[in-house]
Amino acid sequence: MHMLRCLVVDDEAYAGRLLASYIGKIPFLTVAGLTTNPIEALLWVQEGRADLVFLDIQMPELTGLQFLKLCGSRCKVILTTAYPDYALDGYEYDVIDYLLKPIAFDRFLRAAQKAQTALLALAPTAAPVPVTPSALAPVSNYLFVKGESKNKFLRVNHADILYAEALGNYLALVLPNQRLVTYQTLKELAEQLPQPPFLRVHKSFIISLDQISMIDGNTVYVGEKAIPVGETYREALYKLVRDPG
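Structure tokens predicted for Two component transcriptional regulator, LytTR family:
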């Protein structure tokens, strides 16, 4: 299978990591680079290290539209932004697609399929790009969550997470001696966490199976915290409990 080497450029580290996690779920995509620095990304493109760039528009130092002007036709681009007003500007540069944040996985997949079709049409007889271990995104055992200020991110080890609770468009990440509230949905968090050991057991809760102290009917206990198990999620939980392998 022809793998498309993807470069993710976003000045918000969390947004970039979310896109990298999406890329990891699609068989014909691989992460060639992930950066918050558009100037570094431009060098990678000029060196021919990417087939497809997921590019944020609003960035310091170099905006996405300036990036497009400089990179020319060296690679294909999918724009990502929270501002729909830029869509027409982007299409002037023949971008593949335009993704409006927050980006759902199904919408991301459609954009990726458009990119695959466009790139294969340009080089129908090209040999598949070899994928070396160094080109693949490393499997991490941590994540970064957005802090209270724009450029503050806190590192959280997976092993320290007891559970997460939805609070509207925010969520609380509960650790042994700390409760972090961050602007993120439970659905977005689920995309970042390995499953198992993490499992959604309710529309408002994700738990770590490693932290369960007891299951009693439709209630799971993480330490002293009693968490309800939603009907939609019961079968998956009980299957993992009965057959953890």
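Residues 124-139 have pLDDT under 50 and may be disordered.
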